[in-house]
Design goal:
The complex is a heterodimer of chains A (373) and B (51). By secondary structure, chain A is of the alpha+beta class. Chain A has helices spanning 25-30, 53-68, 91-98, 103-108, 187-199, 213-228, 246-258, 266-269, 328-334, and strands at 74-76, 82-86, 110-111, 121-126, 131-134, 142-146, 153-156, 164-168, 174-178, 183-184, 238-239, 243-244, 274-276, 286-291, 297-303, 312-317, 322-327, 335-342. In chain A, strands 13-18-14-15-16-17 form a 6-stranded antiparallel sheet, with helices on both faces. The radius of gyration of chain B is 10 Å and the shape is globular. Classes of the chains: A alpha+beta (373), B mainly beta (51).
Chain lengths: 373, 51
């Protein structure tokens, strides 16, 4: 795979983060892109001559660089041949729309976010310390953090930008890691890491497997402890001993008590488990909402008696700047209900009609290409 | 019940009795769809803000 450092060098625009905590990575990455039409006042200034392929190519890469912090490592030679790789699979339809003559070649391009493709991994590292992963190649906006004991992160085969490298966590989050902060692994460890990385475990999709009531009770107990201790809210934070955001709260709790990784961002988390209705909320379910005045996804953990109706919620609250527990009534006075999901089912749960939801199952996994944003 | 995605036309599975404001994901194209009305059921693209 040919890559060109010049495709995404130091001049890559900062800004739009590759991984935006609490924000749907997959929604943005899968949304078909389209160039903004010119404003009416600009119509007379728009050239009627078709743009040259090289110009359209550069413009399309610039759009992707704006989204992810760096353009995909693609090059277009003077003969019109394409080489290189995409960062995420959703870039393929967007680029094909901008450059239809390259659609077939784009289909053959590797996707760096696809961990199963041997062409895409540059290395692995583990965190010796709490390590920030940033939303972009520059700036301080935190995407997430990896902690000692977390699964290794995967380096994507993309040239570093601004002293940072694009990496992927086991939960699928793409973010920018400082160079040299972590220890690289040996070749044998590399093989094992890839196997472990691909094996997950990830949160269930389309189902909510049974769980021991004691395990659910422990999950709820720790969540309530975090609220009692008023753990600070930190956007991008993933360390409960220091500060977390809403999606890190749910991700870390389920990983600690059930061993699987939810996606890092709340909008992606709602694709996991089994969809249920608001009136069917039980302790241990996830509730998704948006703040009344905003349209940003928020997630909380419904709490109450195991196997019983949930009357309260624990969530890392941006406005309170800490983890809080409150009644669902109070919560829904400030937030608009958007979705509820069940990740694990207590055997004590009586399924009700309001539980019914023709939840789609999802055969894919978090590794196959989509970026967390 | 099933509803056609307004972006790609794929079938999106939604609750029999959805609530206004509920968000559903199209598994095919990834767009998020918001329930705008329940009688009849109408979905539109949900635009999330930058955090």
């Amino acid at each position: 795979m040919k890559t060109s450092p010049a495709s995404f060098g130091a001049s890559a625009p900062a800004g739009r983060d590759a991984s935006r905590p609490g924000r749907s990575r997959s929604r943005v990455s899968r949304r078909p892109g389209s160039a903004e039409p010119p404003a009416a006042s600009d119509v007379s200034a728009v050239s009627t001559a078709p743009a040259k392929p090289a110009d359209r190519f550069a413009a399309a890469l610039a759009v992707e660089a704006e989204r992810y912090g760096a353009p995909p490592p693609l090059t277009l030679d003077p003969a019109g041949a394409l080489s290189g790789a995409l960062v995420v699979g959703s870039q393929r339809p967007r680029l094909a729309k901008a450059l239809p003559e390259l659609a077939a070649e784009l289909e053959r391009c590797a996707v760096l976010a696809d961990a199963a493709d041997p062409r895409t991994t540059a290395g692995w590292s583990v965190a010796r310390l709490r390590t920030p992963l940033f939303a972009g190649p520059t700036g301080d906006k935190l995407a997430t953090e990896i902690l000692p004991g977390d699964p290794p992160i995967r380096w994507l085969k993309l040239e570093p930008v601004g002293g940072r490298r694009l990496v992927q966590t086991v939960a699928g989050t793409l973010a920018w890691a400082p160079l040299g902060h972590n220890r690289a692994l040996s070749a044998e460890q590399d093989r094992q890491r890839l196997a472990d990385f691909l094996a997950g475990p990830l949160a269930p999709r389309g189902s909510s497997p049974p769980a021991e009531p004691a395990a659910i009770a422990a999950l709820l107990g720790e969540a309530r402890d975090w609220a009692r201790h008023a753990i600070p809210y930190i956007l991008g934070g993933a360390d409960p001993s220091r500060g977390i955001d809403c999606s890190a709260l749910t991700q870390r709790l389920f990983q600690r008590h059930f061993g699987f990784w939810l996606p890092r961002h709340s909008s992606d988390q709602k694709r996991c488990g089994r969809r249920i209705g608001r009136r069917a909320l039980q302790a241990g379910d996830l509730v998704f909402a948006t703040a009344r005045a905003r349209r940003i996804f928020h997630v909380g953990l419904a709490v109450g008696p195991v196997g019983g109706a949930a009357g309260r919620v624990v969530h890392a609250c941006l406005t309170e700047e800490r983890v809080v527990e409150e009644s669902l009534d109070s919560f829904f006075q400030r937030y608009t209900f958007r979705a509820a999901t069940r990740l694990v089912t207590s055997p004590d749960t009586a399924e009700t009609a309001t539980d019914s939801h023709a939840g789609e199952s999802h055969a894919g996994d978090n590794h196959a290409g989509e970026i967390h944003e | 019940m099933s509803f056609d995605c307004v972006v790609c036309g794929s079938a999106v599975s939604i609750a029999e009795a959805p609530e206004v404001g509920e968000i559903y994901d199209c598994e095919e194209c990834g767009v998020e769809l918001e329930v705008c009305s329940c009688a009849p059921v109408k979905l539109d693209v949900f635009e999330e803000e930058e955090k």
